[in-house]
TrEMBL record:
<keyword id="KW-0812">Transmembrane</keyword>
<dbReference type="GO" id="GO:0010043">
    <property type="term" value="P:response to zinc ion"/>
</dbReference>
<dbReference type="GO" id="GO:0043190">
    <property type="term" value="C:ATP-binding cassette (ABC) transporter complex"/>
</dbReference>
<dbReference type="InterPro" id="IPR022689">
    <property type="entry name" value="Iron_dep_repressor"/>
</dbReference>
<feature type="transmembrane region" description="Helical">
    <location>
        <begin position="117"/>
        <end position="137"/>
    </location>
</feature>
<feature type="domain" description="Iron dependent repressor metal binding and dimerisation">
    <location>
        <begin position="418"/>
        <end position="470"/>
    </location>
</feature>
<dbReference type="Pfam" id="PF02742">
    <property type="entry name" value="Fe_dep_repr_C"/>
</dbReference>
<keyword id="KW-0472">Membrane</keyword>
<dbReference type="GO" id="GO:0003700">
    <property type="term" value="F:DNA-binding transcription factor activity"/>
</dbReference>
<dbReference type="InterPro" id="IPR001626">
    <property type="entry name" value="ABC_TroCD"/>
</dbReference>
<dbReference type="GO" id="GO:0046914">
    <property type="term" value="F:transition metal ion binding"/>
</dbReference>
<dbReference type="InterPro" id="IPR036388">
    <property type="entry name" value="WH-like_DNA-bd_sf"/>
</dbReference>
<keyword id="KW-1003">Cell membrane</keyword>
<dbReference type="InterPro" id="IPR036421">
    <property type="entry name" value="Fe_dep_repressor_sf"/>
</dbReference>
<keyword id="KW-0732">Signal</keyword>
<feature type="transmembrane region" description="Helical">
    <location>
        <begin position="237"/>
        <end position="265"/>
    </location>
</feature>
<feature type="transmembrane region" description="Helical">
    <location>
        <begin position="308"/>
        <end position="328"/>
    </location>
</feature>
Amino acid sequence: MRLFVIVFLLMSLCPHAALLAADGAESPASQRSITDRSISIPEWKDWRRVFFLEDYNTRIVILGTTLLGMSAGMIGSFALLRKRALMGDALSHATLPGIALAFILATSLGMNGKTLPVLLSGAAISGLLGIASILLIRNLTRLKEDAALGIVLSVFFGAGVALLGIVQQMQTGHAAGLESFIYGKTASMVASDAWLIGSAGLTCMLISILLYKELTLLCFDEGFAHSRGFPVVLLDMILMGLVVVVTIIGLQAVGLILMISLLVIPPAAARFWTEKIFYLSLVATILGALSGMIGSAMSAIFPNLPSGAMIVLVATSMFLVSMIFGVPRGILIRKLRRYQLNRKVDRQHLLRSIYEYLEAHNMLTEKNTMEDKSVPIATLSRMRSWSPTKLHKIIQRAGQDDLIETDSGDQIRLTVPGLSEAARVVHEHRLWELYLITYADVASSKVDRDADAIEHVLEPEVISELEALLIQQASTEILPSPHTLEIKLENINSPDSHSRRPGS
């Protein structure tokens, strides 16, 4: 009987135990408070849903931010080259009072003040007023453009914050969500918003492509464009109008505070990869698109991370990668080129020093064999003021290039290719010296130093022009040095060394 009672009690407790187990097996997301802003590691299904665009809202957001990044990258390229990058910052801050006023007026007229076209229209009007204010301050006063930017930025943004306070006190203002325009909120983007951003962005890109030649000329040589009859003022207004449109359509995605970064960072990163404006705008467009796409995807995977900040952080990471690894203007490639140039300069200095030593000792005649043309290493060290360690490394690298060979422990001599290379180096050096003396009025006592700064980067075309200008006509004969070669004669192992004594 007691066994039956125990079994009955256990069976009656099982449903309660099952409920407790079910409660304990709830996902962490269901247990998390709505105010919890902690970041959890997403599961594989979350990554898959974002990467394969399984959610409708994710597709809308990624499409809108990608098109925004493309248009911002292309338009920002011209603004950056025009040195109007900070104009977008002042413009974005100047849109805030227009957004608040548009909401107030639309609500007062019985309209829906939260619709995106209404808010963006107010932002556009306010932004244009901000640009007009900057131009008026710059033209009517003696203040510079940076001071005008600071004044307009602070005044308009302060007015916008004050108007937002009024909006929050309205009956419908608490649900307006206008503060999302400050920091950006892509989660609220709907299909109509994405199509509006995409159509406006593609229109701006199309206009910049049609005016590519004119905008390029405006960015690089405004005076020449004006002299050729181009409407410089109109082109400048068109460029600023494009910046206005791109800035306004990016308010919802990135926010007015961070919108300037999307206009500046992709073109600045693209600058490290190319020297041509066509490829600059193309690379900036690609980087802007990737920034919008990856940033919004990361925000979808980590919901507690704001999309605007993620887009900017992705763009910044691309900028850092471009700054370090970019070709041809990245830090690493510039360091590598500098290193290669230093090695080239040291090698040419070594060859020229050996040649001038042989020339001063009259050892370049045909009666002297290659074995007779040895130079003491200690003399080269004194001629170039090199340390023994550096001179040893230079000699070692020149030997690996088959330009010199070691005669004995303390002497070296040129090989046949080394003698030919040394003659070429000396010829170009003295050709440039003669040009500086003849046409630049440089004193012969100082021309060696001036020529040494440029001779290592002379192109063959420049050498040919110098030879033609100085009536050499591609002569292979070595010009005499226009200044005295201060090389001390020393005893060397040559057939007539007895006739050359130190101090003779």
